[in-house]
Give the backbone structure.
Amino acid sequence: MKQLRRASDAKKEVSRAFGVLRATGTAERVTFVIGPDSVVRQVIRGLKKAEEHADRALEAVKSL
């Protein structure tokens, strides 16, 4: 399996580009699952519990 990477977005450029930056300046909790071909395969958003969000993201990555 390829190494998974996470990125920091201190300047909020990525948040803005992906449409998840709120008017308050904070970003929504959204995970974009990106396939090996660099295509966004799934967008996970709107989940209140961090554990549920993480579980859904892991399922999505395993399905690639």
About this structure: Helices lie at 13-17, 50-62. The first helix runs from residue 13 to 17.
